[in-house]
Write a structure and sequence with these properties.
Helices cover about 25% and strands about 25% of the residues. The chain is of the alpha+beta class. It is globular and about 50 Å long. The structure holds tetrahydrodeoxyuridine (THU).
């Protein structure tokens, strides 16, 4: 299935796959190549990369590309268990980023208890709960 890899089960593998996915990025404008690898509750891994456009605002982030692949494969049952994100400049140098606000909102939609793994400036990985990345997020009021 396009965009998915079955069998990768731990965070180390997600980190390695996110690093690989960044090599697929289409980022000629920002020159920030971002990759994401997530694992669903069912154990399947889905990959995403950022895809930019000459019309800048329509570009998309790696995390939400991976989420789209997961939802396409698993539908409304998709539950996010863990995700790793990695970013590099055009020369392949590691750059520390954490998910943007829009991606944080997308992550909690599918797994507030998901582990979110990303690089610190010193190159180490840190793991944070999606829940903790976005306090006071938008919740659709009950009607
Ligand atoms: N980007 C991501 O892919 N994920 C994020 O969480 C933040 C930003 C991408 C979008 C754009 O292609 C580039 O990084 C610069 O903002």
């Amino acid at each position: 299935m396009p965009g998915s890899v079955t069998g990768a089960t731990d965070l180390e593998e997600l980190r390695a796959l996110a690093t690989q996915a960044a090599q697929r990025a289409y980022a000629p404008y920002s020159k920030l190549n971002v990759g994401a690898a997530l694992r669903s509750a069912g154990g399947t891994v889905y990959l995403g990369c950022n895809v930019e456009n000459a019309a800048y605002p329509i570009g998309g982030c790696a995390e939400r590309a991976a989420i789209a692949a997961a939802v396409h494969a698993e539908g409304a049952d998709f539950h996010l268990e863990a995700i790793a994100v990695a970013a590099f400049d055009a020369t392949g140098r590691l750059l520390a980023i954490s998910p943007c606000g829009a991606c944080r909102q997308a992550l909690v939609e599918f797994g507030a208890q998901a582990r979110v793994s990303f690089h610190q400036p010193d190159g180490s990985w840190s793991d944070v709960l999606a829940d903790d990345l976005l306090p006071w997020r938008f919740v659709l009021p009950p009607r």
